[in-house]
Design brief:
The chain has 158 residues and is an all-alpha fold. It contains 9 helices and no strands. Helix 2 packs across helix 3 and helix 7 runs antiparallel to helix 8. The protein is globular. The mean pLDDT is 81.
Length: 158
Amino acid sequence: MINILIYLFEIYIHSDVALIVDHNELTDELLQAGFHQEDIYKTIDWLEKLALLQEDNKTPYVTGNMLTSVRIFTSKEMERLDTESRGFLMLLEQTNVLNPETREMVIDHVMALETQELILNDLKWIVLIVLFNIPNNEYAYNQMEKLLYCTSENEFLH
């Protein structure tokens, strides 16, 4: 799924190509690109759920006092997000790329991926795709796009 998401993001976001919204046309294009039909269907479903983030009346992901809250990862989340990935999410919060609500959106969408193995670079792409779909979040998206192409955290921080 992650390869399809990256493929679609790079084809449609950073080009003048019009986004195909017809499921059959999109499926045909992805099949021609070499992706498996089952993965395509799962990815389209994932993207439809992601599109809900653009609705104004979405329910908040985080309730309570966000300034004093602590994020505890479940065992399933820790299986999917290794120590490096969890540390990266913390870095994104500390640098104001993510806030508690957008962090939870990212974790939710990572957990919805049909994959057991998630490397840090995959997580970066998911964060970028999620941030792209949240209205009025240009600063965070631009920072994440910059970070995606950095070779180290130190390069990003300076």
